[in-house]
Amino acid sequence: MARVCQITGKRPQVGNNVSHSNNKTRRRFLPNLQKKRFYLPEEDKWITLKVSTSAIRTINKNGLTSVLKKARENGNVLV
């Protein structure tokens, strides 16, 4: 799974580089993805997810099980 957050579904966005002379060339804005291991106490196992840094903050705030449940409802998680 390339450059897609498994929790939020963030993907690369496209836009323009704009030079001083106002020339425009296409570019990509890549999400800040990290490979992170999380512990699931309910299933007593570790899982590795490719998540954005904002998703890591959401997991720290709301808890892994509730975030995974919401992500499965949105169709983002493959775990």
Q: Can you walk me through this structure?
A:
The chain has 79 residues and is α+β, with helices and mostly antiparallel strands. The protein is 27% helix and 35% strand. The strands form two sheets. A two-stranded antiparallel sheet has the order 1-2. A hairpin with a 4-residue loop joins β3 and β4. α1 crosses α2 (64-74). The longest helix is centred in the last third of the chain and has 11 residues, at 64-74. The mean pLDDT is 93.
Features:
alpha+beta, 27% helix, two-stranded antiparallel ribbon, two-stranded antiparallel sheet, 2 helices, 79 residues
Number of helical elements: 2
Helix-strand pattern, N to C?
Answer: EEEEHH
Shape: elongated
Mean pLDDT: 93
Helical fraction equals: 25-40%
Structural class: alpha+beta
Largest sheet: 2 strands, antiparallel
- Proportion of beta-strand residues: 35-45%
* Strand tally: 4
Radius of gyration: 16 Å
Order of strands across the main sheet: 1-2
Low-confidence stretches: none
| Terminal Cα span | 12 Å
Gist of the model:
The protein has 79 residues and is α+β, with helices and mostly antiparallel strands. The chain has helices at residues 53-62, 64-74, and strands spanning 13-18, 24-29, 33-40, 45-52. 27% of the residues lie in helices and 35% in strands.
